[in-house]
Amino acid sequence: MQQNQHIAARLAAVNLLDGVLQDGRLMSELIGTLDKLPSDDRARAQRLAMVTLRHLDSADRVLKPFLKKKPDQRVMNILRLGVIELCVQKEASHGVVNAAVTIVGKTRHTAHMKGLVNAVLRRVSEVAPEEWGKLPSPQMPKWLRKPLIEAYGNSTIQKIEVAHAKGAPLDLTPKSDTKSVEKQTDGVALPTGTVRLQDAGQVSRLPGYDTGDWWIQDAAAALPARILNAQPGEKVLDMCAAPGGKTLQLAAAGADVVAVDISEKRMARVQENLDRCGLEADVVVADVLEYQGKFDAILLDAPCSATGTMRRHPDLPYAKDGSDFGTLINLQARMLQHALTLVNPGGRLVYCTCSLLPDEGECQIDDILQQHSNISVDHDALNIQGVDPDWITQEGGLRLRPDFWPDQGGMDGFYMACLKIAD
Ligand SMILES: C[S@@+](CC[C@H](N)C(=O)[O-])C[C@H]1O[C@@H](n2cnc3c(N)ncnc32)[C@H](O)[C@@H]1O
């Protein structure tokens, strides 16, 4: 029975890999396919698929000498999963090889590859686990690596790849008191006030979850709202708000917050989070491009490539190929232009994206500054606790990268800038 369950989880992991690598779908879109599995198997399947995607380049390097010709994608994914189980999960070789052979035998068009899978994984199990630690960090796919090397240079990209391979810890934003959240969760407070947990386990079981003392938010993602520095009673618009980490920060600061997002489903999560944390905001489902009103301060967290979140979402560079980035860059520019019409004179706007691509960050701000003589960058806004002056860019924004804070567990890639609108 136990053995069958493990086969079920491994089979589901291979199906997830097929979904990402063959069909170009994100893991978040595929999770629903696991609904029939018991929760332990579901978690195991997701974990196995995520670790395999995170180390895909290394798994392929290990397999290459043992394959005269690359087999079809499904067989390749079964082999990749086997390599990861042997080299990362350190599972016993007989169980890994038997499971892989069983899975390859389950599908008619791959069943004839049982012998190859058996032979390759047996040979991998003899040499690879020891060699694994000597491999370079897995590289991201070329379509993304190339523009990022152009933007940051080869050595920075190598450091970012080291950070991606490590994955991400769990970061919490305290509702009010950092010290008590640090103590309650046994976490460590980072210089910017985020509390970081290395081995969190199930989030809803952590102390302070039910009482809404904190919410999950990467340390980098917590900075745009800190830079906006909303004041009690100020009228603040959170554009593109769901799932609501920044809405919660703005509401916790005592601002009068309107949170707008086009996704009804995601906005239901914003309301749930507000309720859990005992905070209030006006939650509106709408297209921000059509939304009207006047505000003292605006936070625009525009939809983007999400390339800054790859350490958390290793499926992203495989499910995407960059073909939709032009549309996103255009949408960001339109949202930014519209947002500026909603700010009161003398007000401020923080623009941000969880992207590593300068086209979605620095270039958007450069364009706005060229087009509007009444708008300037608020350099003083970046003067907040824990922000390293080295992170400040030429035009006055903040460029955050996964390779920053390497000894503390890194941070997501992010860009943000605070714009001032003249009176
Ligand atoms: C980067 S996420 C926002 C994350 C959020 N600010 C937070 O901190 O939790 C981008 C959001 O933009 C929303 N979005 C995309 N196009 C939109 C539009 N035209 N109008 C409103 N929201 C939109 C998506 O539904 C998504 O929730």
From TrEMBL:
InterPro entries referenced in this protein's UniProt entry, alphabetically: MeTrfase_RsmB-F_NOP2_cat (IPR049560), MeTrfase_RsmB-F_NOP2_dom (IPR001678), NusB-like_sf (IPR035926), NusB_RsmB_TIM44 (IPR006027), RCMT (IPR023267), RsmB/NOL1/NOP2-like_CS (IPR018314), SAM-dependent_MTases_sf (IPR029063)
Biological processes per GO annotation: methylation
Active site at C354 (nucleophile)
Pfam families per record: Methyltr_RsmB-F, NusB
Q: Which domain of life is it from?
A: Bacteria
Q: Which SUPFAM superfamilies match?
A: NusB-like (SSF48013), S-adenosyl-L-methionine-dependent methyltransferases (SSF53335)
Q: Which residues does the record give as S-adenosyl-L-methionine binding sites?
A: C240, A241, A242, P243, G244, G245, K246, D261, D301
Task: Give UniProt keywords alphabetically.
Answer: Methyltransferase, RNA-binding, S-adenosyl-L-methionine, Transferase
One MF term in GO for this entry? methyltransferase activity
* Residues covered by the SAM-dependent MTase RsmB/NOP-type domain: 148-422
Q: Which PROSITE patterns match?
A: NOL1_NOP2_SUN, SAM_MT_RSMB_NOP
- State the similarity comment: Belongs to the class I-like SAM-binding methyltransferase superfamily. RsmB/NOP family.
> In its UniProt entry, what is this protein called?
RsmB/NOP family class I SAM-dependent RNA methyltransferase
Q: What species is this protein from?
A: Parasulfitobacter algicola
